[in-house]
Amino acid sequence: MAERADRQATGFDGAWRWVGDELVDERGAVVARESNDVLVVAEQRLLIERLSSRFSVKVRATAGDGRIFLAAQDGLTVRTLAASCDGRAYELVRRKSVARARTIRAQGRPVAVVRPTRAGVSIGEADPEEPTGMPAVDAAFLSWVCRLVDQPRALRPA
């Protein structure tokens, strides 16, 4: 019971999935929503800027209170993305060169797995038995970035 309370305190718990412009939890409750390059997670609003060029991916989001969230490719390909969410460092690594699933690592430890699905993108804990410590806003932003990079073009956010 205490373990469950600890997980809920971190914000990210269980498995979430993007359905259209909404990130929903296992019960179907909306966790986050993206509209017109604004990502809303609980009471937090992040203004998203896509700074990508033809050969590189870079996304920056700025919270209303000035906190910065960044994600960019780490090298010549998008196999590895480096991210920073208000100073918390993450690495988003594709498991295989051709696979679209990514493992999100924090301090070298897997904390979440992101998988494209037919309907959108899902994000789940890397180990359901161990709390991730990942804030909900980080999970929402990072899964949104994976959605932008890894989904087929027809399903990507506009």
TrEMBL record:
User: Which top-level group of life is the source organism from?
Assistant: Bacteria
Q: Specify the protein name.
A: Uncharacterized protein
Q: Which organism is it from?
A: Corynebacterium otitidis ATCC 51513
